[in-house]
């Protein structure tokens, strides 16, 4: 049995010496409409503040049919890009009058579906999801129940609106710049092949090679997932088979770069001549070797996603797709 005391509005009314109805009207901001005296309001509010009482959002949601909460589903909160999206979205949602509730999917479709179900059970008014399931049908039912927007990733074939980074163009510029500096052998280590982010980043890599007249080797390209261990294993496999580092490595995500750096640190040697990655992190400025990166605009992704959800809540059709430009971070040591 819990030893915690759960205060109710009846307790606040009793402590303030007013009726339950009066306490409810004051705490829900409706005192003026019912001509409740200022003295009574101050007494109720003081008691509520003293006991850190907040009116039940569940009860309020039942009355208004709106919870003023939004749900965010991300694959991993330890992923800097996903954490940056959540951090940018939370104050924007609060400014719009909504509290953000965040769950992680672990890039597992089953866990993602369970997380969405939990958020819907808590009566969120809308959902922003970084999807991990490539099947449009997985989201069709939710999209009929409440406003749903994809952020950072899209699901080809799904009518759900999306707000994503123009990754192919950014990756093409990044890879093209190291080719211009002399790189002719560029290993690509990507995430899950079924994810739109992986497809877009790989498309940019291929386009840069094609523009330079470079045909990728049979073992240049690999895609598994965005785990650090996968980046480390992929580079280890290359070095084991070739007896040397590749001239350049382009990772499709910052966590994959972590794995590459972990292998270089453990294996020794100078490492690849060029290191490139999609996504950015302040720690890249502190490394002894220059890492060229693509920085996504987390604020723009968050603002665009929120705008789409709010438009649907207002009964307005949102833009079906929104592409956000990224920037290249060029470093020299």
Summarize the SSE layout with pairings.
Layout: H1 9-16, H2 20-27, H3 38-50, H4 57-64, E1 69-74, H5 80-95, E2 99-104, H6 109-121, E3 126-129, H7 137-145, E4 148-151, E5 162-165, H8 167-180, E6 186-190, H9 196-211, E7 221-223, H10 228-242, E8 248-251, H11 254-267, E9 274-278, E10 291-295, H12 298-313, E11 321-324, E12 327-329
Parallel strand pairs: 1-2, 1-3, 3-4, 4-5, 5-11, 6-7, 6-8, 8-9, 9-10
Antiparallel strand pairs: 10-12
Pfam families: LacI, Peripla_BP_1
InterPro entries: HTH_LacI (IPR000843), Lambda_DNA-bd_dom_sf (IPR010982), Peripla_BP/Lac1_sug-bd_dom (IPR001761), Peripla_BP_I (IPR028082)
Domain HTH lacI-type: 7-64
Describe it for me?
The chain has helices spanning 9-16, 20-27, 38-50, 57-64, 80-95, 109-121, 137-145, 167-180, 196-211, 228-242, 254-267, 298-313, and strands spanning 69-74, 99-104, 126-129, 148-151, 162-165, 186-190, 221-223, 248-251, 274-278, 291-295, 321-324, 327-329. By secondary structure, it is α/β, with parallel strands linked by helices. It has three domains: 9-55, 434 Repressor (Amino-terminal Domain); 67-165 and 298-325, Rossmann fold (3-Layer(aba) Sandwich); 167-295, Rossmann fold, CATH 3.40.50.2300. α5 links the parallel β1 and β2. The relative contact order is 0.11. Residues 7-64 form the HTH lacI-type domain.
């Amino acid at each position: 049995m819990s030893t915690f005391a759960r205060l109710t509005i009846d307790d606040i009314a009793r402590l303030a010496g007013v009726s339950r109805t009066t306490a409810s009207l004051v705490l829900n901001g409706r005192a003026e409409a019912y001509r409740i005296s200022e003295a009574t309001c101050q007494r109720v509010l003081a008691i509520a503040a003293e006991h850190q009482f907040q009116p039940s959002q569940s009860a309020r949601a039942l009355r208004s049919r709106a919870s003023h909460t939004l749900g965010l589903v991300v694959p991993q909160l330890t992923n800097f890009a996903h954490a940056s999206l959540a951090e940018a979205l939370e104050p924007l949602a609060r400014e719009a009058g909504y509290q953000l509730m965040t769950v992680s999917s672990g890039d597992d479709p089953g866990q993602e579906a369970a997380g969405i179900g939990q958020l819907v059970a808590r009566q969120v008014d809308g959902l922003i999801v970084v999807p991990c399931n490539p099947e449009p049908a997985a989201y069709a039912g939710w999209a009929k129940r409440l406003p749903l927007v994809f952020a950072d990733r899209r699901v080809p074939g799904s009518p759900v609106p999306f707000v994503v980074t123009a990754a192919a163009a950014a990756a093409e510029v990044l890879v093209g710049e190291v080719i211009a500096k002399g790189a002719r052998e560029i290993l690509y280590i990507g995430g899950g092949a079924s994810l739109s982010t992986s497809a877009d980043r790989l498309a940019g890599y291929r386009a840069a090679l094609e523009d330079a007249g470079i045909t990728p080797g049979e073992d240049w390209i690999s895609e598994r997932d965005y785990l650090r261990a996968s980046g480390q294993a992929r580079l280890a496999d290359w070095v084991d088979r070739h007896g040397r580092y590749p001239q350049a490595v382009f990772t499709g995500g910052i966590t994959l770069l972590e794995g590459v750096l972990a292998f270089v640190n453990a294996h020794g040697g100078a490492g690849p001549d060029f290191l490139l990655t999609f996504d950015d992190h302040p720690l890249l400025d502190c490394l002894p070797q220059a890492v060229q990166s693509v920085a996504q605009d987390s604020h723009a992704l968050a603002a665009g996603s929120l705008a789409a959800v709010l438009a649907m809540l207002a009964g307005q059709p949102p833009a079906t797709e929104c592409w956000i430009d990224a920037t290249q971070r060029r470093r020299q040591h």
